[in-house]
Amino acid sequence: MATLGPSAFSPYPVAVYESVLNPPPGKALLINEIVDEEIAMREAAKAMLTRPNPTIFPGPQVLYAWNEEAKEKAKLVRKMAEVLNAKIIPMYDYRPKYPKINPAVEINPNHPNLTIWHNKIKACIFVGVHCHYANVALKIIRAETDCFTIAMCGMAGHEDAMITLRDQHVEEMEKFIKIAEEVKRELGK
Amino acid sequence: MSYKIYEINEEFLDVMPQEIKDLQFRATWGNPKRGVMDLPYSKELIEEHSLCAGCPESMALRYILASLPNPEDTIIVNSTGCTSLVFPHIALHTVHSLFGNQNAVASGIKRVLEWRFPDKVKDVVVLAGDGATVDIGLDCTLQSFFRQEKITTICFDNEVYANTGGQESGLTVKGHVFKMAPKGKQWDKVPFWQIAIDSGCHYVARLTVSSPKKVETVIKKAIYVAREVGPTYVHLYTPCILEIGLNSDDGLDEMRQRDKERFAFFEYMTPQAQEVIERKKEEGLL
Question: Residues 117 to 136 of A: which have CB under 8 A from any B CB?
Fold first, then answer.
């Protein structure tokens, strides 16, 4: 069990207490550094390709075909999983699940650590999760697990992720896949 | 909103749990003739709930959610009480208001939806307990009736403040004793269905939830009338089996007994409401 850290029960991201803030537009966050997007994407791909049980957690914004962009993103997430040899575990909604979740096949933002623990996931990508629930889940994962978290956010990013890629849309996702393919070749995977 | 938000991208069909796929493939979205008869065959909008075993309120919720004619475009506003424990589990848009202001919140939502989506039918339904509807929220409830807001108000009357330990409410029957009302209630039960009529509701019904089909008909009538004419009110008896000392399997019998007395089926409608109901019957929707 985790011990209560300095941020206690604060509603704010834990990283904020360590002076880690979201990156400005055009940049990305790598642990606690603001770096160029390409560098962060390269590190993200490396983490996914080298750590055990890499997993992508797609959220409702890409899981459901509610607009054309979502349909396009779904294809890209699938391709991303292929390139990174990653498993896909969906975060299909945010309702607290009773009596309990099945951590082998689903992840819930209210206790994402259960899925991480169960599958021994050491690197993951959040994509298409609405920001407020991504914040909750990433905060819990940061506090309770040793999983390397990567947030692909369509908006301003998430401090609590180890790598934050902000303003990620179809074009940026394609760019990430290209970089991941390069890194994969370099690593000889 | 559209029921397309439940359409899963085909890339993910293999990783989605069956219960979520069922929301797309075995659901009743987009079918205004959906009803309680679909319950055994279709995906429900509520499955697991966090109410007590055998709670009649859970039955009421199941029947109501199965009866909504337009669930993909329905917003439910609820209030503090046992019902608020359930709403996180249902596959619909819900808004949890402060204790008692649910009809004010619903009025705002309805007006904004009418302005934002003038070409779409959006139903706003208030689901609240007797404390929220008649005691703490009496002002907001009545004012929404006076203003002729086009919303449906459903009151789950369990005749007591149940989840706070058993205090008497305005809808408690005179003489009833509860844990926190040891002397028994001194005053009569508020006849809120009558007040709703006097306050301008166009369709009012009082019943228990012992008959699923009857609940379905009443809910559909109330929603169709609210959509076109004005406020409607449904008063449902959903006894708290714990607070009145019954077992889990006694809820249905309790309601059947009350069907013959103070919750005998009662229905009121204005001529405008009757016209809507007749038309919907002709269209085969009732």
Answer: none
A22-187 architecture in CATH? 3-Layer(aba) Sandwich (3.40)
Q: Are the beta carbons of A71 and B12 separated by less than 8 Å?
A: no
Q: Check residue A100 and give its pLDDT.
A: 82
pLDDT in tens, chain A (189 residues): 556 666 767 777 888 888 888 999 999 999 989 999 999 999 999 999 999 999 999 999 999 998 999 999 999 999 999 999 999 999 998 887 777 889 999 999 999 999 999 999 999 999 999 999 999 999 999 888 999 999 999 999 999 999 999 999 999 999 999 999 999 999 998
Interface test with B, best of A56, A69, A78, A87 (most B CBs within 10 A): A78
B94: nearest CA partner in chain A: A95
Domain ranges of chain A: 22-187
Name chain A contacts of B91, Cβ cutoff 8 Å.
93, 95
Chain B residues within an 8 Å CB radius of A88: 12, 15
> Which residues in chain A touch residue B87, judged by CB atoms under 8 angstroms apart?
none
Is A106 within 8 Å of A88 (Cβ atoms)?
no
Instruction: Give residue-wise pLDDT tens across range B231-245.
Output: 999 999 999 999 999
Residues of A in contact with B17 (CB under 8 A): 90, 92, 102, 105-106
> Do the chains contact at A92 and B2, CB–CB below 8 Å?
no
Torsion region of B30: left, alpha or beta (phi above 0 gives left; psi -120 to 50 gives alpha): left
In whole angstroms, what is the distance from residue B237 CA to residue B156 CA?
Answer: 6
* 3-state SS, residue A63: helix
- Which residue do the tokens 């089909």 mark? B213
From the list B266, B233, B271, B30, the residue with the least C-alpha distance to B150 is B233
Give the relative orientation of helices B271-282 and B212-228 as an angle to the nearest 10 degrees: 110
Say how far apart CA B204 and CA B266 lie, in whole Å: 8
Binning chain A into helix, strand and coil, the percentages to the nearest 5 are: 40, 15, 45
Which ipTM score applies to this complex? 0.89
Cβ–Cβ of B17/A105 closer than 8 Å?
yes
Please, which residues bridge with residue B274 across strands? none
- Return the amino acid letter for A141: I
Instruction: For residues A107 and A124, give the distance between their C-alpha atoms in angstroms, rounded to a whole number.
Output: 12
| Domains along the sequence of chain B with CATH | 52-282 (3.40.50.970)
Structure tokens at B72: 């993909």
User: Is B20–A70 a contact, with Cβ atoms under 8 angstroms apart?
Assistant: no
Contact call for B88 and A95, based on CB within 8 A: yes
The tokens of B199 are what?
């306050």
